[in-house]
TrEMBL record:
Its cofactor is pyridoxal 5'-phosphate. Keywords: Acyltransferase, Pyridoxal phosphate, Transferase. It is an enzyme of class 2 (transferase). This is Pyridoxal phosphate-dependent acyltransferase. Homodimer.
Amino acid sequence: MSSHILNQFLSENLEDLKNKGLYNVIDPLESPNGPIIKIKGQELINLSSNNYLGLATDDRLKNAAKESVDKYGVGAGAVRTINGTLELHTRLEEKLAEFKHTEAAIAYQSGFNCNMAAISAVMDKNDAILSDELNHASIIDGCRLSRAKIIRVNHSDMDDLRAKAKEAKESGLYNKIMVITDGVFSMDGDIAKLPEIVEIAEEFDLITYVDDAHGSGVLGKGAGTVKHFGLSDKIDFQIGTLSKAIGVVGGYVAGKKDLIDWLKVRSRPFLFSTSLTPADVAASIRSIEILMESTELNERLWENGDYLKKGLKSLGFNIGDSETPITPCIIGDEVKTQQFSKRLYEEGVYAKSIVFPTVAKGTGRVRNMPSAAHTKEMLDQAISVYEKVGKELEII
Ligand SMILES: *Cc1c(COP(=O)(O)O)cnc(C)c1O
């Protein structure tokens, strides 16, 4: 017999979400997650994935994965510290350190897990964390897990950061103070002000932590936001994901050798959760090699991002102030935003609406994620659908 209390909790809350139009129905893809996807038999131009470079379906990665399965099987068999470390994992970590221009790196099962792992391995209840208010959910959860005092900082507001860093430092209440930020903020496509953050960190002796999930493979000719600003030796923790531009799944922390050695003995997802599969690791290694050999995909991504932005802007859409290929199309009203996204879908463009509480009230938007894999024809087609639907709903 199942719990009556649980059943009641679930049915009431599910009902409530559905009534408020906040219940998300997931449509499975009937195709790979490429530039064109298929859902319920319909082909759609895909402007919603984080597969920035199109590597998720690249033959070179697929072959690397297949060969590794033949050689090592499908599972790593244990956590990293027992005997789940294959030579492949070590090779991946060496490659990541090279890619990030750091002394060392450690791989985890996901980017989310990195934040569960790394923050609480270093910070505790006697410490404080200065956290940008728009940081990713996994950063927020990772901070909470550490039990450090969390001090929210207004988004990319350097005066606020400086004032709060000063106050925390001068209070004498904390052993260590960390400043933590996304490298690229995925809702607006803006870049963290790392040079100023580093300056403030130096002034107040802060530990610096940058989660560059959306910057790796995109900024710094692929090496990420920290490299983009030439700050590779100034940031203590560089977090990256293998799940977005790299095209596979997994995450990593790159930094000084002592930091990585510490995470190998003290971070819980490394110690208590089975390591990445051989296929994931082999495909990720191949992906990073491709990024290091050539900037071709990276250049195409930026070209496509600029092309889409220009097209939407010249139609009269509000595309915000993105500094990366992420292209929000800000509609404002939540209901209208959802209606807009639905009409795009019916016309063959898959671009998700993002509304409160993910973004501020009245700033509902449809977010477009162009990739290196889109052709100009696909983007032209998407732009013409935007024009049609935009006029129909009187947005332009
Ligand atoms: C997507 C994202 C993650 C999660 O990465 P996964 O590898 O998908 O778990 C973590 N941090 C930020 C900032 C992200 O954007």
